[in-house]
């Protein structure tokens, strides 16, 4: 919040959340809150699965939604954000980006300047289960260490196959 010009922060977390909303309303900003899952109840918790545990974050989301302003907030979580599901409109878009379709994985690798034919790039996307972050990391590794040549992806065998059954 000091970045947005606020020098005195309230001690109360709810008041901090409201202050942040006010600051974002007045000053154009992109706020990225990445990885909210530690603040959520587990998905397998039958009654409150995925709901935010953190009251200040709940207040922030609720308050930000009610005000029009110049800022954009991007929230990410590996679990569905229950509090946002009911708000999907043209102003609030929810996307499930857990995995990419392999054709999009090919496009992502190409955008990262990975060199290879569609079949080779498709195979890399399949090997990484369409996991977007893994594809980005692989793309950067290939470009930085192998001039973008996709054939070297197989040399990173341990990276690709260690967790073959997981999302990553």
Give the averaged pLDDT, no decimals.
82
Structural class: mainly alpha
Number of domains: 2
Task: State the shape.
Answer: elongated
Q: Tell me the helix content.
A: 40-55%
Give a short account of the largest sheet: 2 strands, parallel
Are there runs of 5+ residues with pLDDT below 50, and where? 164-168
Oligomer: single chain
Query: Numbering strands along the chain, what is their spatial order in the largest sheet?
Result: 1-2
Q: Count of DSSP helices?
A: 7
**Number of DSSP strand runs:** 2
Distance between termini? 33 Å
Q: What is the CA-based Rg, rounded?
A: 20 Å
Order of helices and strands: HEHEHHHHH
DSSP strand (E) fraction? Answer: under 5%
Please, could you describe this protein's structure?
It contains 7 helices and 2 strands, in the order αβαβααααα. α2 links the parallel β1 (30-33) and β2 (72-75). α1 packs parallel to α2 (55-66) and α4 crosses α5 (118-127). Strands 1-2 form a two-stranded parallel sheet. The chain is mainly alpha-helical and 168 residues long. The protein has 2 domains: 2-85, no CATH class; 102-161, no CATH class.
Tell me briefly what this model is.
This protein has 168 residues and is mainly α. The protein has helices spanning 13-26, 55-66, 82-85, 102-111, 118-127, 132-146, 157-161; strands at residues 30-33, 72-75.
């Amino acid at each position: 919040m000091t970045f947005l010009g606020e020098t005195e922060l309230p001690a109360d977390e709810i008041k901090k959340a409201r202050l942040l909303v006010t600051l974002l309303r007045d000053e154009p900003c992109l706020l990225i809150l990445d990885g909210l899952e530690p603040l959520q109840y587990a998905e397998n918790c039958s009654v409150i699965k995925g709901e935010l545990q953190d009251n200040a974050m709940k207040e922030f989301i609720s308050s930000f939604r009610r005000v029009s302003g110049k800022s954009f907030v991007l929230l990410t979580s590996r679990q569905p954000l229950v509090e946002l599901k009911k708000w999907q409109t043209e102003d609030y878009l929810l996307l499930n980006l857990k995995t990419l379709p392999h054709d999009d994985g090919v496009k992502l690798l190409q955008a990262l300047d990975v060199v290879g034919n569609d079949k080779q790039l498709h195979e890399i996307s399949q090997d990484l289960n369409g996991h977007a972050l893994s594809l980005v990391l692989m793309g950067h590794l290939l470009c930085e260490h192998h001039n973008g040549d996709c054939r070297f992806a197989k040399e990173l065998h341990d990276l690709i196959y260690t967790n073959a059954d997981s999302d990553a």
